[in-house]
Fold this sequence. Notes:
Elements: E1 9-12, E2 19-22, H1 24-47, H2 65-68
Antiparallel strand pairs: 1-2
Amino acid sequence: MDWKRAGKYVSQRRGGFIIEIFKKTKWKKTKKKEKKRKEKRNEKKKKKKKKKKKKKKKKKKRRSRKDRE
């Protein structure tokens, strides 16, 4: 593939690196799709329930021999 003819945009997406080279007309369409994908991802993150934190149990302090006697 001739790099110069393909247009100079190279996208690196999540999920490993998918490197895409494409012409300028295609670039606009993919940009819109990327935007939609980001919006959906953000909505999913908001919908996810937050996990409750577990309370740590306090350890009983060991009494020294002097205290026991």
